[in-house]
Design a protein that fits this description.
Distance between the termini of chain A: 28 Å
CATH superfamily of chain A: Farnesyl Diphosphate Synthase
Oligomer: homodimer
Strand order of the largest sheet of chain A: 1-2
Radius of gyration of chain A: 18 Å
Shape of chain A: globular
Largest interface: A-B, 50 and 50 residues
Helix content of chain A: 55-70%
Largest sheet of chain A: 2 strands, antiparallel
CATH architecture of chain A: Orthogonal Bundle
Number of domains of chain A: 1
């Protein structure tokens, strides 16, 4: 491990070639997703084109890579983690398609391209989201399991993280919070659900694919939770500081929608410090994984310092 | 078995107290659904209220009862079938919520009550559908399995029936068919996916909960397929012949939306004969189940003769 002191590593880049790691695993994930999804020519073509349009829109694949890195940190095999990584990405993409709809965040652009409903119409966009959500569970059910965690455990893990008490709860609270005064506690509630839940689930599923121990699972849970919160605070910061071109999606949306964000409640500088502290806590959570968590650390650091 | 001759039983009521059977199992299903769903007071309340509003809107529970009757026909226990019956009803309800949205069939009434988006707004209606879809998989994953069929098999069964090649494909083809000339073959394609897929899945999951043999599973598959087609032909007929008050939903919608239906393509009388013949074929499919399929037969007969 290049750095043993927590404080020293907290915001420094760890000596690890993350770009090539991301590049390699993004390719594996894209190729696996292509394998798991019905072909674009499968009847009815519209729905399969729409599913693939959003799934292959150039997303950063942070959740799948986190899943794979978590598996590796527990001594697991990338191939065992890949189906679960793909399932999480299907859930993430479905949630973006639905969140972008006019009835929700009403966004015309995502990842620099027109959103699903702008290309295929609202009806098909809703159905493409539904189809990706359904596909995610089929992919998990078809995955190979090892000893400690059965399909039952993996499905419950994914369903809970994506369900009405977590991911969907976050979106509901976000919708309901627009234009209202929001406390930092309420904002934390939203971020835990909208972002942390699925990031945490990605890390946990990766560990589970590697037959991780309970203490490893706990470490991944704490790590995913804090990385998820940091990720969302940084998203809020970028919404204020970057342009739409830099983000590939509409910037300044939160302010326009009168959404509470960390910068709007505690200011930009304090928000940055909060993101840094959350990242430090994510690093600290990795201690039980000892020397194997370099990729996870590097990912957390990258997410903290990203500019889009 | 009260009738051994196929032709004689085809459209006659079998000697079986279906109303009390439906009443008894509808109660069990409602109580199990109440148990499986988060409470209406769970945070965020809006989403849980919306999920429950549509789930407890007085649906006929045909799919869950079919699932239970299939389990019984294979010598199984009602309690083993109940979670799967509830999962199928969650899928059915989610598909109704999304189908009723303005971007799809744009319906204001369902089962005699305002549709979800009319009560909660489009955003929450979309999320309530998503949440019920997700919940369905969690319920299956938490169910007790027996020997022959694992959670993996049950999840794949449900995901395929609800996915982009079946249930969702049917809705896509239905959307795309509006205002276009449709052949009976294309109409059959839509009905197989929009209705048969999930009815067939209900019967199969019931059988699987009872550890059914492959020949029993094949019988249930054929039965569900033909009952599903008959069900949809009758739905088309009722849309023309009944009033909105009788149906509890907007009548004449298919004609207004220039949707192809059996009555619009082959006429009302021929449509009725087609529904009868499909029901006969559903009866014939039950032969391998011998004397145990009385409830299934009675259900098929009831669906043929229903007036709403």
């Amino acid at each position: 491990m290049p750095n043993s002191s927590l404080d020293a590593t907290a915001t420094k880049t760890v000596a690890f070639d993350l770009p090539s790691y991301l590049n390699r695993h993004t390719k594996s994930v894209n190729s696996a997703l292509d394998h798991f999804l019905p072909k674009a020519t499968a009847k009815p073509q519209t729905i399969h084109k729409a599913m693939r349009y959003s799934l292959f829109a150039g997303g950063k694949r942070m959740r799948p890579v986190l899943c794979i890195a978590a598996a590796e940190a527990c001594g697991g095999d990338v191939n065992d983690a890949l189906p679960l990584a793909c399932a999480v990405e299907c859930i993430h993409t479905y949630s973006l398609i639905h969140d972008d709809l006019p009835a929700m965040d009403d966004d015309d652009y995502r990842r620099g391209r027109l959103t699903s409903h702008k290309v295929f119409g609202e009806g098909i966009a809703i159905l493409a989201g539904d189809a990706l959500l359904t596909q995610a569970f089929e992919i998990v059910a078809r995955s190979k399991v090892r000893k400690r965690y059965a399909h039952q455990d993996l499905i419950i893990e994914l369903a809970q993280a994506s369900g009405s008490l977590q991911l969907i709860a976050g979106q509901v609270a976000d919708l309901e919070g627009e234009g209202r005064k929001t406390s930092t506690n309420q904002l934390r509630y939203i971020h835990e659900r909208k972002t942390s839940a699925l990031l945490c689930c990605s890390a946990r599923l990766g560990g589970m694919s590697a037959d991780c121990s309970l203490s490893q699972l706990k470490a991944l849970t704490d790590f995913g939770y804090h990385v998820g919160l940091a990720f969302q605070v940084i998203d809020d910061i970028l919404d204020v500081t970057q342009t739409s071109e830099q983000l590939g999606k509409t910037a300044g949306k939160d302010t326009a929608a009168q959404k509470a964000t960390y910068p709007s409640i505690v200011g930009l500088e304090k928000s940055k410090r909060i993101a840094e502290n959350l990242t430090k806590r994510a690093f600290a959570a990795l201690k039980p994984l000892r020397g194997k968590a370099t990729a996870l650390k590097s990912l957390a650091d990258f997410l903290l310092k990203r500019d889009r």
